[in-house]
Amino acid sequence: MQQPITPETILSNGDPGDDMQRRLRYQATYAASLALSLVAADSEFDCLFCEHHEDIEPI
């Protein structure tokens, strides 16, 4: 059975937001992974600062 085409399953070539997400997918995934690690009792980080547009800094 084929999965339906939805915004969750495919990025649009004409949408500037999708183009940006395509280029920053690794960074978004890494930031999400770090954010989830904050709830672990043995996390090496206390907080995660996110800049307005691009970078993250675990502290």
Portion of residues in beta strands equals: 5-15%
- Quote the average pLDDT: 79
What's the helix count?
1
Strand order of the largest sheet: 1-2
- For the termini, the CA-CA separation is 45 Å
Low-pLDDT ranges? none
Descriptive notes:
It is a single chain. This protein is an alpha+beta fold and 59 residues long. 37% of the residues lie in helices and 10% in strands. Strands 1-2 form a two-stranded antiparallel ribbon. The longest helix is centred in the middle third of the chain and has 22 residues, at 16-37. The radius of gyration is 15 Å and the shape is flat. The model has no long low-confidence stretch (mean pLDDT 79).
Set out the fold topology.
Blueprint: H1 16-37, E1 48-50, E2 56-58
Antiparallel strand pairs: 1-2
Throw out a few tags for this protein.
single chain; 59 residues; alpha+beta; two-stranded antiparallel ribbon; 2 strands; 37% helix; flat
Question: Care to give the gist of this entry?
Answer:
By secondary structure, the chain is of the alpha+beta class. The chain is built from one helix and two strands.
